[in-house]
Amino acid sequence: MTAGRRLLVRDLAQLATPAGAGAPLRGPSLGKVDLVKDAYVLIEAGRITAVGRMRDLPALGDDVQELDGRGLCAVPGLVDCHTHPAFGGDRVEEFSVRAAGASYEELHAAGGGILSTVRATREAGEEGIARAVERHRGWMLRQGTTTWEGKSGYGLDRETELASLRAVAAAGGAPTWLGAHAVPPEFEDADAYLDFALAEVLPEAARIAEAADVFLERGAFDAGQARHYLTACRDAGLALRLHGDQFTEAGAIPLALELGARSVDHLEATGSDGARALAAADVTAVLLPASALFLNRPMPPARALVDAGAAIALATDFNPGSAFCESLPLVCGLAATQLGLAPAEALAACTVNAAHVLGRAEEVGRTAPGYAADIVLLDAPDWRYLAYHLGGDLVHTVLVRGDPTRLR
Ligand SMILES: [Zn+2]
Fold first, then answer.
1. How far is the CA of 330 from the centre of ligand 1 (A)?
2. Range with the lowest mean pLDDT among 1-10, 177-186, 338-347?
3. For residue range 244-275, what is the model confidence (pLDDT) as tens digits?
4. CA 219 to ligand 1 centroid distance, Å
């Protein structure tokens, strides 16, 4: 919208936003929503300046654009804090084979999996990667995602990793260097590859990326290698993330605590000790139920984590191999049906808490005065349709910094 110009979104059926202030929300606070029925939102210069009931709407004078919210519910723009959008090709062939019975680890060990995407991403080149990221960003926006993180990790050479990070930054995402995703075929072992990545890629990656990430798992990188990689990345000024406890508990949670990581993501294999450790920590547990569903794996212990007091976030894990899904509304549906989370907990987990993981919780994640005017208008009579209308065509309009895009 034009700077200084005001936009009034009026006559909304409901406006729902995570209650309270600050981030991350934990325990009982995670499930509290501020709900306004028959609501308005006033936006000025891309920021929310007022929210309230229509009957309390003050006289606004001239020079106010209006957007009709009748029949719609407003929630904060969704925040996807874990995606892998920088890839070439697809994995539909592997998907089909796996659907017929082969396991993800078997396909990975057979040289399919991540390394087939590495080949396709290197072949795509800088322009092809930029086009792919832009396309995937459009998919996310149509599902209501207005803030997103995007990882590299399908290049694993200097040129392609940096091109991936530049593509994410150019498309408006928060770039994360997933330099330790897999060991590329030109290296004999993980240690030799990490020596290369830290010496040749990190110095430039640290200028583009906000965070670094590692795939700590049997067959990828062990805890010692992950510590070596993450320590160097932290020293270069990057925030730290870990893929951990996806298939096995291999030490990701203790390492995340030791290094002061922002998050540890996946946690499908986390036991009660891990959940207890996270409960007492300032590390957010990022849960990815679409990935567990896609791979037909056990779901992460979301309820136990929340009840213990851990900070959780929800994300899609959008990627071509293990979660070809960019929909946070679908993830909210999975949270409600598979993770034992209330719609209000799911909402907070993919707005304010996900924003916290990205270091943006003071800017986005709530529909309240002072926050950026990133808002999703749902075509629904009740905001809880966000989790309830599973796979539904819910997103009516998305506002990014006050600019509305009508999607249906
Ligand atoms: Zn991931």
1. 17
2. 1-10
3. 999 999 999 999 999 999 999 999 999 999 99
4. 15
Per the structure block, which two tokens stand in for 274?
A: 């891990």
Instruction: Determine, yes or no, domain membership for 122.
Output: yes
**10 found inside a domain:** yes
85, 68: one domain: no
Kindly state the tokens that stand for 103. 């396991």
Phi, psi of 383 (to 5 degrees): -65, -25
Centroid of ligand 1 to alpha carbon of 319 (angstroms): 7
pLDDT of residue 70 exceeding 80, the answer is: yes
Provide the whole-model pTM.
0.97
24 upstream amide cis, omega within 30 of 0:
yes
The whole-angstrom separation of Cα 398 and Cα 191 is: 45
Residues 20 and 135 in one domain: no
**CB neighbour burial string for 148-177, b if at least 16 within 10 angstroms, e if fewer:** bbbbbbbbbbeebbbbbbbbbbebebbbbb
**Is pLDDT larger for residue 97 or for residue 214?**
214
Ligand 1 center–CA 84 separation, angstroms: 6
CATH assignment of the domain containing 46: 2.30.40.10
Read off the tokens for 245.
């406890």
Note down the domain range covering 50: 6-76+366-406
Instruction: Report how far ligand 1's centroid is from the alpha carbon of 318 (Å).
Output: 7
Measured in angstroms, how far is the CA atom of residue 82 from the centroid of ligand 1? 6
Q: Which of 52-61, 101-110, 133-142 has the lowest mean pLDDT?
A: 101-110
Domain boundary among 276, 305, 326: 326
* CATH label of the domain that carries residue 308: 3.20.20.140
